[in-house]
């Protein structure tokens, strides 16, 4: 297929494009990081192999660009991005702080945890922020996202592909999750990171909605409030009534604010290129979902 006609792994008819068209997903990115940190090996792998403390915002932007490429890039671009991630992960090792055992960063268990925490965060944040999705669309999103799981080296058949399977996966893995020192430090860092010297859109726009520090704290508070109740308890948060409702209201308010910003200010080059390809596609070939 010519790159000018390639709609990538998904396309205009997919639930993935519907969900990721929402700027509110920047909150989902933070939510997923809070959640991922609760896996002892996953957070150890990050802290022992990442420059997230010294280059937090750069790492966040690189992750955002990777997600945008897999969602909106051409098939070749998405596969190339996945290949780069696989090569990088294949070289990385970490030490389990509990047992002293060395392990590979690309263990399927760890890749699956990161994938599920991420896509569930995208979907949950979108729905709680007011994006209308039917139960069938929710299942379709999880099924579609098996394609991104395959990019990082997972067998799609081993990845939850429906809401029921995701819920079952969480029930199965919860006994292995822990509030470790690394998780606590990561959670604190996510809540109050150093102020960035430079930040590109859409993050700069988000922080410009008010004083930068207070705006970010509100963003992080919303992301944390959208976590499952069991995850918030693991972080030691009190089980206050109305927490989930308050977080949902904050997410809806933020979504309205972000959607009021002219689209040209929140659309990145990868997204714009995808929209241009979609506009040129014939209707019969527009859907990949």
TrEMBL record:
Stored Pfam families: MPAB_Lcp_cat
Domain ER-bound oxygenase mpaB/mpaB'/Rubber oxygenase catalytic span(s) in chain numbering: 17-255
Superkingdom field: Bacteria
GO function terms (MF aspect): oxidoreductase activity
Name of the protein in its database record: Uncharacterized conserved protein, DUF2236 family
